Amino acid sequence: MVHNRRRRNEGPREVSEDSGGVDTQRQIRRAMGKLREAQEILAGLIVPREGSMEEVLQDRADALGAKLTRTELEVMARFVEGQPPGEIAEDRGLSERTVDNQLRVGCHKLGFRDRREMKGWAAAANQFLLSQPPDTE
Q1: What tens digit of pLDDT does each residue of 57-112 get?
Q2: Strands, E, within 1-137: which ranges?
Q3: How many CB atoms lie within 10 A of CB 113?
Q4: Which of 42, 71, 80, 110 is the S-S candidate for 122 at Cβ 3.0 to 4.6 Å?
Q5: Which of 32, 104, 109 is nearest to 64 (CA)?
């Protein structure tokens, strides 16, 4: 019969071998977070070509090796251009929930945490497109 109780004279238990696994998992999570940050920085450095928001989003997808469906790309472009999901759904003959799912999946594929982050990135990319590049001569 196995007892889980400690004897009174026993000192504190030594750290079990499992705690090493916890530390390793923690280190892996930290490293993955740093990789995600680096990926975002590198993706942000890629200069989008002039064109529509669909092209800008597609450039980011290509840079990240992500595969967006045509519908995801269209829905995301319309959303970052300011059209609300309900209106996108109505125009496309879809339910609002379907559009919400397409936005969620598209954001995930492009490395954004949420729609707000995607919209902020798109606004910054758009601002960059509108500004003139510096004169290097």
Answers
A1: 888 888 888 899 999 999 999 999 999 999 999 999 999 999 999 999 999 999 99
A2: none
A3: 11
A4: 80
A5: 109
